[in-house]
Amino acid sequence: MTMKKLLIPFFILTNTLFSQDTIKTKFTFDLTGSISQANTNKQDNILLNSFSSVGWKKFETGLSTSYQMMTNNNIQLINDFVLRVQPRVIDENYSIFSFGQISSLYSKKVNQRVEAGIGYGKTIFKRKLLESTFSLGTLYFNNDYSDLTNRKGLRVSPRIQLFGKNEKYKISYSFEGFYQPNLLDKKDYITNTKTTFLFDLNKKFSIKVNYSTSFESFIITGAQNDIKNFTMGFNLSI
After folding, report:
1. Bigger pLDDT: 21 or 93?
2. What is each CA distance from 38 to 35, 41, 47, 69, 169, in whole angstroms?
3. In terms of residue numbers, what domain contains 175?
């Protein structure tokens, strides 16, 4: 009986320590798209996105992929793929992160774009239905274009995020926008925005409505530098 009494605190302490060190995983996948037709003119637009992460204590590493294909009368306009890895340290009101990203952007005639950087993020405010964060990063980029042009340099990247959820109506919403000027050439910049609404069907599946914009000031002949998407589809979250 005495031994059992001695072991009880040990099991409680062990369980507490392991529960604090639990490795957390997350995976989301969404497929959205749109189809438009006017007489014999037809346009198809498909977007695939996935995100997976592994977290332990304040550390998290995320892996995200993004793919978009757009055709107009079976002529390919967009065939873009992005792969991003982002380790970070997360606290209640701030985060410190680094990232590496590689892209193949047919729409912008970029055969390969390599980016790597570091940054800092901070919570601006937290409300019951809305939260906002701001981050500032610095990144190195190296672009190889299809006309054999090469551009490399440094960009600064301020980014703002707004997000929240209304549990009563089972609606999640978010907005993200960033501006990336070239530190050595102010005429060279990139802007990007994304607005998303998720309507929960159950704990794993949601209907997703997405509107995004992407603009790059520097392009080569034949590239698409101003892209806007309004798409609808589904989201899986595990």
Report:
1. 93
2. 11, 5, 22, 20, 36
3. 24-237
Residue 159 lies in a domain: yes
Is residue 15 assigned to a domain?
Answer: no
Number of domains, the chain? 1
Q: pLDDT tens digits for 108-146?
A: 999 999 999 999 999 999 999 999 999 999 999 999 999
Please report, for the domain that includes residue 161, its CATH number.
2.40.160.40
CB 157 within 8 A of CB 137: yes
pTM of the model: 0.87
- Based on its alpha-carbon atoms, the radius of gyration of the chain, rounded to whole angstroms, reads 22
Contact by Cβ (8 Å): 203, 170: no
Cα 99 to Cα 6: distance, rounded to the nearest angstrom: 48
